[in-house]
Description:
Blueprint: H1 9-31, H2 38-45, H3 49-55, H4 59-81, H5 88-105, H6 111-118, H7 120-147, H8 155-167, H9 170-175, H10 180-195
Helix pairs in contact: 1-2, 2-3, 4-5, 4-7, 5-7, 5-10, 6-7, 7-8
Amino acid sequence: MPRISAATIGEHRARTRDRILQAVSHLARVQGIDAISMTDVAQEAGITRTVLYNYYPDKAALLLAFTERVTQYFIDSFERELPADASPAERLRAFVRLQLEGLLAHPHPGAADLSAALGPDAYQQLAEHVAPMQRILVEILESGTASGDFHAPDAAATARMILAVIGAERIPLVSGAVALEEAEERVSGFVLRALSN
């Protein structure tokens, strides 16, 4: 029976989940999330594969939990770093910057590759986990349209296009071909020009 070092079993389980997801984060940066195996994760987290499977029954469940954590981190960062009185353009720039920082900190394959790796059901769940980020972007676009700063009559469709533009910087950014600041300026500049009246 594994030794429990925390005050309670619940706290021990929370610490173990944290170690597992930290292992996924590290391995994603080192070898790419699509190449990670459950064995790799267990070794990196310092646990057995049996213990890992007690927390996450398969790679899809593990990646969904990791995505949920990264999404929550993004939302917390956005709320923490953005002043309440920021303009829609400032909020959009912050959104782009945080998204690009996330791509760099947590490299992952594009949507098509993830869909192929996870299968349609898990990919749909993954899409639901990242939906809060799209809602933040839609709200930014709607507030900018209401104030007259942006022209985005269909905020949901515009948000999807902006996320695609951000995603287009994934490979150049992760490979080091483009610096974060350059990618941020390129995406923000392009999007803000596209939204201008």
